[in-house]
Amino acid sequence: KEDPENYRGISLINCCAKLFTLILLERITTHCNTNNILPECQAGFRRSRSCSDNIFILNSILQIHLRLRGRKVFVAFVDFKRAFDTINHDLLWRKLYESGISTKNIRIIKNIYDNAIMRLKSNNCFSKTYEIIEGVLQGESLSPLLFSIFIADIENYFHSLGLTGINVDNVISVILLLFADDLVILADSQIDLNRKLAALNKYAKLNHLIVNINKTKVMVFSRGGYGGVARRHKFYYDHNILEIVPSYVYLGVKFTSSGLFLDMSKQTVIKTKQAFGSVTNLISRSKINSWFSKKKLYESILLSALTYSIGIWGLRYEEVIERAQVGFFKHLLWIPRNTPDYIVRLETSTLKVSFLIFKAALEWFFKVNFMSDQRLPKICFKRLKQLHVTSPIKYNWIAQLKHFFDLAERPDLWNDCLNNGGNGKRLTKELLDSYKSVLTREDLNSLSRSTSLLLATSFSYRSLPNYLNLRCPNYLVKIIAQLRLCTKNYIKLSDKLNIHKINQEEICSICNLNQRETIEHLFFQCPFYGHIRSSYLGEINSLVELANALESDSYNILFSMGGFVTSMLRARSFLLNE
């Protein structure tokens, strides 16, 4: 946080200039696509490509090679220092010309840069103006493409030095991956990677690029993990030793030296839980009382981050990731952490995260399946399919996806999807509908077998509970949820401000009936709450009637229930503290 190099200013550019460069972008993009100017290994800022492409390619290469005993994959994650800000303009114009872009368009771009000036604004004060003598402009749409064209020759440069990539399918090899200025170099030995780092050093000097030594890391992937790797291997860039690390976050996904994603799943859960408070505080401050709105906030803020590229890395970790989703609803409703997960999902009409994992994996499956055969994700995909048949292992992404077909009880659709892709939308719908039914049935079966829940076994759960469809105050929603989901030995109830924990195994210390302080005792028997009971509960005299009231769609009945709990808890707290 203290390093200024980690920050970038916000560039404010004239709107007319933005529109003009957008027109140029369309023209130059068409030229690049028609003439294959950008290498296949570049996925940054290109239509129909995303971070998922490179995440899948790297993961696939690891799966392809690490299936073999003793095999290692050597990877350098290269960080260019202020790459966009240090592009040499003369080199850029030359590379645009060599790429076949019309001299007219080059002249227009050059005129924009020759006449561009900038000044800084801080605390409402402006600096003097500066000419832009290097780097691409930030804050407009053309710059990422200009940078991609500038660095597009790096792969050919490596090949011109006799360097080869890491094999994928005995025909195609991958020497590096690019996402804008994020560079990954792949090698199959220490010597190979050091040669490629030397080639990178030459390329960087020729193109006036600077590699940030401190942020450039090396990973040695093997099924044996990280132990002893740093002692056995040394990697150099321009005579500087590069740090070997056990893990690296690449495009938002944490890769570990084993090639597995358990750490990524745990880290995602931790980060999601850390963000619980920001969402619940937003709900509280905004006084949001619509369950639909609360769930939308959860989906847009937490779930989107939780499921980022999850169809690629999360197929084996659905149980770990589920902790974050269920944990959020327990946090939102103030219910105990030991409340069974299945009842929380039923109460909130939420499916397991595994449903979203399967959905994301299917979407990626069909997207890759319909790519051209020249695309790297498709090449890796076909190789994984082949290995699944000839050398099946559990780490293969294809094998992990097939397991979900079995979980969805539709293994009959596997061959149809695998061989020709079929109708992607139809197959996806069939598979997801089936999996949704399976997951719902599993949760309902768990509920029917439950011996710990006090009231929930009497609820139908055919749809979202009525109280969540009503616009009840947040404190009331929590109270109703806590009553509905309480267990036979532990109660966690809240008034408008505080949480009260009651052990139903202990004798009530308020009265002299010598009875355990159960829900039944609190609601119907303890004499100290008689006046509160008569004011709020009316004719509710048993657990069956209480359960029926908690299923009610009447706001008044639910409000009375909340009034009783709030008043009873305050009286209890007062008596206990006397």
Describe this structure in words.
This protein is of the alpha+beta class and 578 residues long. It has four domains: 4-256, no CATH class; 262-350, no CATH class; 357-447, no CATH class; 475-577, no CATH class. It has 25 helices and 17 strands. Helix 3 crosses helix 5 (143-150). The model has no long low-confidence stretch (mean pLDDT 92).
Instruction: Bin the helical content.
Output: 40-55%
How widely separated are the two ends?
A: 50 Å
Instruction: Characterize the main sheet.
Output: 5 strands, mixed
Shape: elongated
Query: How many domains is the backbone divided into?
Result: 4
Q: Poorly predicted ranges (pLDDT <50, ≥5 residues)?
A: none
Given helix and strand content, the structural type is alpha+beta
Which percent range describes the beta-strand content? 5-15%
Strand line-up in the sheet with most strands: 8-9-1-10-13
Gyration radius, in Å: 30 Å
Count of separate DSSP helical elements = 25
Number of strands: 17
What's the overall average pLDDT, rounded? Answer: 92
Keywords:
578 residues; 4 domains; two-stranded antiparallel ribbon; 5-stranded mixed β-sheet; alpha+beta; 51% helix; 25 helices
In short:
Residues 1-255 form the Reverse transcriptase domain. 51% of the residues lie in helices and 10% in strands.
Which helices and strands, and how do they pair?
Layout: H1 15-35, H2 51-66, E1 73-78, H3 89-98, H4 103-114, E2 117-118, E3 121-122, E4 125-126, E5 130-131, H5 143-150, H6 154-160, E6 166-167, E7 173-174, E8 176-179, E9 182-187, H7 190-206, E10 217-221, H8 229-232, E11 236-237, E12 240-241, E13 243-244, E14 247-250, E15 253-256, H9 262-274, H10 276-286, H11 291-306, H12 310-313, H13 318-333, H14 341-347, H15 353-369, H16 376-390, H17 397-407, H18 414-420, H19 424-448, H20 466-469, H21 474-484, E16 490-494, E17 499-503, H22 519-525, H23 530-536, H24 543-550, H25 555-577
